[in-house]
Amino acid sequence: GDQEAGELGLAAVPGRQAAFRQGLAAAVQYARAVGCPRIHVMAGRVPLGADRAAVAGEMETTFIENLRYAADLLAQEDMIGLVEPINNRITDPRYYLNTPHQAAAILEKVGRPNLKLQLDLFHCQIMDGNLSRNLETYFPLIGHIQIAQVPGRHEPDSPGELNFPYIFELLESLGYTGYVGCEYAPKGDTLEGLGWLRSYWENRGLQHGGTSKAAE
Hints:
Keywords: Isomerase. The protein is built from 8 helices and 5 strands. The protein is an alpha/beta fold.
């Protein structure tokens, strides 16, 4: 969308369907060029001056229609579309899609197997908590995981609410084999900030890069 005009995605924004399709086509071109099989289809914000409850129905209808269009286009490219709930308590008060429950209900209505849930645990913790049960409940829908400590949105080993070694072990036990995206703001130097990952590997008897010493 038009970020200078305050847009953050268009998929659920009524009246912006044509622009959504143009943006999606461009995203597919980029994804094809870099060999990326997943595209985050951003819902967008409640229009300025509009009451969220008053426009919720129209925005959901728009979202579902656009997601079906996106799924069919992405299927031709063997790609997956992702929808991500973003918290409206801290990060973006006007973002339309806020909770995994809302996202799961919409994905069920859309009914396309190549649309998945992008679960950012930072947003999920702020909106709902209950991370273990939410991961177990929505695991079949998850296509990508993102992490950041709460509430500072820094490295996983920075002070905060979340126990990431436990969460990583839970993901492994559930059979998650996808990427875990580090969508956090480093407190300092990016590479220095990755010390948490080296420590995590060492604590589990792994070499740099995640390979086991036994395998070596």
